[in-house]
Structure formats: structure tokens, C-alpha cells
What we know:
Elements: H1 4-7, H2 23-29, H3 34-51, E1 56-61, H4 66-79, E2 85-88, H5 90-101, E3 107-108, H6 111-114, H7 119-124, E4 127-130, E5 133-136, H8 137-153, E6 158-159, H9 161-174, H10 187-194, E7 198-199, H11 207-219, E8 226-227, H12 229-242, E9 246-251, H13 254-269, E10 277-284, H14 298-303, E11 307-316, H15 319-332, H16 344-348
This protein binds nicotinamide-adenine-dinucleotide (NAD).
Residues 62-64, 89-91, 95, 130, 202, 205-206, 252-255, 283-286, 294, 318-319 line the site of nicotinamide-adenine-dinucleotide.
Keywords: Transferase
Protein name: Deoxyhypusine synthase-like protein
Family: Belongs to the deoxyhypusine synthase family.
Amino acid sequence: xxxxxxxxxxxxxxxxxxxxxxxxxxxxxxxxxxxxxxxxxxxxxxxxxxxxxxxxxxxxxxxxxxxxxxxxxxxxxxxxxxxxxxxxxxxxxxxxxxxxxxxxxxxxxxxxxxxxxxxxxxxxxxxxxxxxxxxxxxxxxxxxxxxxxxxxxxxxxxxxxxxxxxxxxxxxxxxxxxxxxxxxxxxxxxxxxxxxxxxxxxxxxxxxxxxxxxxxxxxxxxxxxxxxxxxxxxxxxxxxxxxxxxxxxxxxxxxxxxxxxxxxxxxxxxxxxxxxxxxxxxxxxxxxxxxxxxxxxxxxxxxxxxxxxxxxxxxxxxxxxxxxxxxxxxxxxxxxxxxxxxxxxxxxxxxxx
Length: 353
Ligand SMILES: NC(=O)c1ccc[n+]([C@@H]2O[C@H](COP(=O)([O-])OP(=O)(O)OC[C@H]3O[C@@H](n4cnc5c(N)ncnc54)[C@H](O)[C@@H]3O)[C@@H](O)[C@H]2O)c1
């Protein structure tokens, strides 16, 4: 049986859009057909939403985007004010981004391993598999334990996931797990520094869930930290009310897609005349026939009063192909240059100093 060291040899390397100018390539795609033309339109809509400096851009992440090599893109979007809030699954933010910030890596699985015939051997080695990517489960346990440590350090009360993730950013800073101190850059820390709120509406459904379960078990009847997803929804809705023009860049689908779309309706319920999301892009492989949320088109979302139909585009592509092109296009066109960071976290936690 191969050893863990032999299996975990080749790390996933995150693509750097700054190094690859794709503008000419994506522009040429507008004269083609099918998905390439859709992709060009999506890239143009993303550029347009960035040029609209009133627009608050919400990035939605489902699927395994961070472990797949897209992490540096999300960091660059944060640092260049190309995103104002993130709504994500916990897996992307905790199991994958926080995990890497703690010093761990994701590894490339060879062709034989991705066929699934060797999964029992991987289990014996305590290695987890995401299709063609491998993770050291012992390191993931350390990530679970660290979220428990963060929970233990907080005043026991209900928190929005945004507040908890901000505390994770503060933890990385305190522990020196940041580039300035020899650590690796992370979405959580970049967002912490740039006051970009991150929401994980199903926060317990990831590594953080294990940490929180352990925290609550240890506390028994004593006051404890808990996650309040209604508070998340209220906070995100407050951002929509304060900044009515919004655009969505959605990768995958899942809970983040609906959660971010629903703030239009929530704002309305709170007595505000909030417009639908003005811009919306979704990149997905989901097929519309199942009637599921993940696969539903943005036109369908307009029937629910959530997304305007003028600037919307579905792109049917696996995200690792489409995201570098769409974001790289907007980056190299300089669409972000006139934008200031909206620093939405400050709106939710007013700075008193
Ligand atoms: N490996 C993991 O993804 C993982 C690990 C731990 C926990 N979880 C938890 O499981 C729950 C469900 O996760 P999810 O919402 O990511 O579910 P999901 O994998 O069902 O993805 C949601 C939708 O996004 C689409 N999608 C996913 N990856 C894509 C890609 N690369 N390109 C294009 N489209 C893609 C899917 O087709 C699906 O329609 C979450 O709460 C998450 O935190 C996931």
C-alpha cells in the first residue's frame, strides 16, 4: 500500500488571473456560438456591474471551488474591490480556505484514484477524496478543532456566521497565519482586512459544524456559542436596504444562490422598495430538468421578483473553466479601478473609534 506521503505529493496550485491577460480571447468568443458566446456576455455583464460604482457585488460560492484552485481569484477579487460580500457554503470557507490558511494543502489525485476503485485504500490512509483531489483527514480534524478553539474564545451568545467568520479572520491575524508573517493568503483574512462580510447560511454543514458540536457538548448547560442563520439573513438584507443596486456572481448554485436572491423579497417585507438584483451571472453544470433551485434559470428567478432580466446570463460550464476567463476579463479591462471598497462589514458593525 502506498504511504500517505507518496499519495500527497503534488499540490493543487491556485490560478493567478493577474498573470494571464484573457481579454482578446474572451472578446473573440463573442463571435462564436453556444457557451463561448454566453461566457463573453457574462464577462461583459460582470465588467458592467463593476463599472456601475453604485452596485454592490455579491459573490456566491457552492461546490468545491476553493480546493479546485480558484482561491487566489477570490482573494484578488476582494483585494481589488471586485466583490463586496460573499455568500458561500461552509465547505469553501472553512474546510478549504481556513484549512489552507492553517498551513495545509489540497493534493492532486492521479487518474487511477479518481476512478474510485482505491477509495478503501485511501480510507486506510485517512485520506479524503473530492473527485480528483485529495485531503489529509487528520489535517481536516485539526481544522475542526481550531474552529472549536475560536468558538471557545468568544462570549457565549448567538452569532451570525458573518460574525464568527470575522472572528476566524482575527484568529489568523493573532496567530500570524498571514502572508506578512510567512503564512499563506486566504479569503477569510483578505475579507477581514477589507471589511468584506462573508456569510455561510448553512454554517454547521462543514468542518465548523464539528467544532461547534464539540464546543456545545463541552458546555452542556452552560451558556454557549451558537449560529443564528436568521441573523445572517437579516444582516444581508440590511446591506440590500442600504445599497439597493446589487449584482450577483454565482458559482454553482445551492443555498448561497437562493439566500442571496431572497434578500430582495426580505427587504420588501421590511417595508423597503428594494429593486431586484440588477445584474446576475450563474456558472453551473446543473440541468434545468430537475426543477431544483441550483438549476433554475435566472429568468425563472425574475418570476419570483428576485432578478432583473436585462443583465442576466447563465453559463453552462464547469466553474474552473469559466471563472478564470470571466473574472480575468473584468480584471484586465480594469473595470475595478474606479471602485472603492464598500467595506460592508463596517455597516454591520459600526466603527465607534
Ligand atoms: N466537498 C464538498 O463540497 C463539501 C464538503 C463538506 C461539506 N459540504 C457541504 O455540503 C453542502 C452542499 O454543498 P454544495 O452546495 O456545494 O452542493 P453541491 O455540490 O450540490 O453544489 C450545488 C450546485 O452547484 C453545482 N456545482 C457544483 N460544483 C460545480 C462546478 N465545479 N462547476 C459548476 N457547477 C458546479 C452543482 O451541479 C449543484 O447544482 C454545503 O453545506 C457544504 O458546506 C460540502
